[in-house]
Design goal:
three-stranded antiparallel β-sheet, 6 helices, single chain, mainly alpha, hydrolase
Length: about 150
């Protein structure tokens, strides 16, 4: 059976047949999905998790950037976005090997702010709830904070 989604005037019987043959009625009747919209858009089955994560992360970075620029920081002068540690070391003549396993790992920071005396390395994250990812990120930040004391 061919169902043309651009045609929107099928009969109730045709829609019913489509829902039965596609298994959507079964999903709903047997409560196999908790949210039909999330299922149809791929969120509930895991197809869109990275997309959502990336969109949320990008949105949070844009919000943080707007706040930093409102404080007078200028992108490319004293504010840098999405910059890896090797670029930071080159631009600012600083050794970050303490936080990169002596240069064996690549670390990227969402923002770097440079003023007269201090170089700020900034990570931006957004979590809508609690969980293991949030806990692991907190542990990672604590470790980086300890390692930066050697710089």
């Amino acid at each position: 059976f061919y169902f043309d989604f651009s045609k929107r005037n099928y009969s109730i019987e045709e829609y019913t047949m489509f829902l039965e043959k596609s298994g959507i009625f079964d999903l709903l009747q047997n409560h196999l999905v908790s949210n039909l919209v999330d299922y149809v858009t791929g969120v509930e089955v895991g197809m869109d998790t990275n997309g959502r994560k990336n969109r949320t992360g990008d949105a949070m970075e844009n919000i943080v950037q707007s706040y930093l620029e409102a404080e007078g920081y200028i992108l490319g002068e004293n504010l840098f976005k999405e910059i890896e540690q090797n670029e930071i070391e080159e631009i600012f003549s600083v050794d970050l090997s303490a936080i990169t396993n002596d240069g064996n790992t690549v670390k990227r920071f969402d923002f770097v702010i440079k003023n007269e005396q201090v170089l700020y390395l900034i990570e931006v994250n957004f979590y809508s709830g609690s969980g293991s990812k949030l806990n692991e990120t907190a542990r990672s930040y604590k470790m980086i904070a300890e390692e930066t004391k050697a710089i």
